[in-house]
Structures are given as C-alpha cells and as structure tokens.
Amino acid sequence: FCFMTQFGRFVSMLNLDLPDYRIVQDTHFSLGGATGGTGKVGEAGPIETHVYLETSEPDQTAQEMLDIAERTCFLHAFCQTNLKTRLKIVRL
Questions:
Q1: Is 42:31 a contact under the CB 8 Å cutoff?
Q2: In sequence order, what are the residues at sequence separation of 6 or more whose Cβ sits closer than 8 angstroms to the Cβ of residue 43?
C-alpha cells in the first residue's frame, strides 16, 4: 500500500524512531439506482484515514511524517482529484 510505503521510506531515510505504525481506512458508499430505491447514481463519501504511530519523536516530527507520506502517496493524490467516473460493460 503506497501510503504505508511512503511512511516507511521517509522514516528510514531520516533514521527516525518509529518502531510501529498502522493505518485504518474506512470508505462509505450509498446504494445507487434500483438497489437503493432512489433511481439516483450511487455516491462515495470521503475516505477516512486513521494513522496510529508509536514513536519517541516530537509531535511536530510525527506530523511531518504524516504530511510527507500523504503528499507522496499516489492514492491520496488520486482521491483528492475531482473526477467523473465512466463505466462501460462489454459482454463477452
């Protein structure tokens, strides 16, 4: 997972104390169309990312770890971009 990779890469490059780190991500989607009984397109809510760090580094350094990992993660950049989804289904 890109976000975790970037976290580990940054920490190892600077020899920071981070013996343990975890993330939990929650995604929320509405039922769309006939399934939801609304006749509307389904929607996705923002992705919630919770980061848990075990470190002796100061809070400012921990925040910097988080900021750099977020800025260099491809998924975070993709999710922050306003895109319109188009889907084409082809029967084989």
A1: yes
A2: 29, 30, 32
Lowest-confidence region among 11-20, 25-34, 62-71? 25-34
Rounded to two decimals, the pTM is 0.63
Residue ranges with strand state E in 2-83: 20-26, 48-54
Delineate the domains of the chain, giving CATH numbers in brackets: 2-79 (3.30.300.20)
What's the half-sphere exposure (Cβ side, CA atoms, 13 Å) at 8? 9
Q: Which two tokens stand for residue 52?
A: 């848990």
The per-type count for the chain, helices as H runs and strands as E runs, is 4, 2
- Indicate the pLDDT class of residue 35, thresholds 50, 70 and 90: confident
Other Cβ atoms less than 10 A from the Cβ of 33: the count is: 11
Model pLDDT, residue 57: 94
CA 70 to chain centre: 8
